[in-house]
Amino acid sequence: MKYLDEYRDPALARKISRAIHRITTKPHVIMEICGGQTHAIVKFGVDVLLPGQITLVHGPGCPVCVTPLELIDKALDIAARPEVIFCSFGDMLRVPGSGKDLLTVKAEGGDVRIVYSPLDALSLAKANPSRQVVFFAIGFETTAPGNAMAVYQAYQQQIKNFFMLVSHVLVPPAMRAILSSPQNRVEGFLAAGHVCAVMGYEEYIPIAREFKVPIVVTGFEPLDILQGILMVVRQLEQGRYEVENQYSRAVKRGGNAPAQEIIKEVFEVAPRKWRGVGDIPHSGLKLREQYQSFDAEGRFGLSGMTREEPEECISGLILQGLKKPGECPAFGQRCTPQHPLGATMVSSEGACAAYYRYRRFTDFGKPRERGVIS
């Protein structure tokens, strides 16, 4: 297939749906680990095409959503300083900190700018040598190569006024944490295709074997997701626990070697706190000692800050696949994109944002009617 509409073909979707119905003989819980997949599932009604025995739950696949509260507060502190130009992707501007968000800091006079690449922030640092330029480096392995390259270039060019507030997280340790939880109910995963395009999927093979869960690297269009589900269900029904690659048009087993090399050059693995989930060992990236001069937390003296999450927000349970957005009493009432309690309601990859946009008028108290569309 060459064109986007081919990956949204209703006839092919019905065909794959019928195949899933035919082979499903018992209940299965499958988690997608990418916010882009979550939005596609909700937008296109992929879950409605599945048999009633198949339950899709939404994992911590939104890097904006899992950025911890104290790091948001550090960003707010830095962005409010008059000597700083604070650069971020647009998603982060509405994520609530303890008392406000970056958009509010901007309205109050902070120099907060939306950029489309960390290299844009580096260019700003070169053009404004009297200012301190800070880039909010969030993301999974997908965005790590670009962020690493910006730091590497700043080092090579001896740019002294460029810094990064780093909040990189890694997917495989989060999957291990979910599977190790006594509350876990996930039996199979749809792995994030863009992460695997960078890192490959060899890291998932030990997880599949150890926890006896099938893992299928999956793309982002409706047919990709349906085929990924079919591959997971087939393994579960056959008692197999392997890593398979549905997204072969973009993902190779070994991933992108040059991208991995620049990540290893600039970053090293570190513990990381995930918002709503907690501390996960070996689940983040931090700047290596050689590049510590670019660390914004150290530059502005903000290490060691901690914050407590608001009790009313259940985003942590949603990110672990234990609840769905509609099960939150505040959903669509006290928590909306205009007045969010948590990041999952404002991020373009957040599960709550997907449900609010596409299903806020659904009666979540009743099971949705599901089956093959004729």
Commentary on this structure:
The chain has about 375 residues and is an alpha/beta fold. It has a domain at about 70-170 and about 255-300: HypD, alpha/beta domain 2 (Rossmann fold, 3-Layer(aba) Sandwich), CATH 3.40.50.11740. Helix content is about 35%, strand content about 15%. It is built from 14 helices and eleven strands. The chain has helices at about 10-25, 35-45, 70-80, 100-105, 120-125, 145-155, 170-180, 195-200, 205-210, 220-240, 255-265, 295-300, 315-320, 350-360, and strands at about 30, 55-60, 85-90, 110-115, 130-140, 160-170, 190, 215-220, 245, 265-275, 280-285. Strand 5 (about 130-140), helix 6 (about 145-155) and strand 6 (about 160-170) form a beta-alpha-beta unit. Helix 1 (about 10-25) packs parallel to helix 10 and helix 6 (about 145-155) crosses helix 11. It starts with 9 loop residues before the first helix and ends in a 15-residue tail after the last helix.
Question: What's this model, at a glance?
Answer:
By secondary structure, the chain is of the alpha/beta class. 36% of the residues lie in helices and 17% in strands. The protein is built from 14 helices and 11 strands.
Summarize this structure as a short list of keywords or feature phrases.
6-stranded mixed sheet, alpha/beta, Rossmann fold, 374 residues, 5-stranded parallel sheet
General shape? globular
Structural class label: alpha/beta
CATH superfamily of the domain at 69-168 and 255-299: HypD, alpha/beta domain 2
Report the sheet-strand fraction. 15-25%
What number is the mean pLDDT?
93
| N- and C-termini, Cα separation | 24 Å
SSE string, helix = H, strand = E?
A: HEHEHEHEHEHEHEHHEHEHEEHHH
The Rg value, from CA coordinates, equals 21 Å
- Widest sheet: strand ordering: 4-3-5-6-11-10
What is the strand tally? 11
Total helices: the number is 14
**What is the CATH-assigned architecture of the domain at 69-168 and 255-299?**
3-Layer(aba) Sandwich
CATH class of the domain at 69-168 and 255-299: Alpha Beta
Kindly report the CATH topology of the domain at 69-168 and 255-299: Rossmann fold
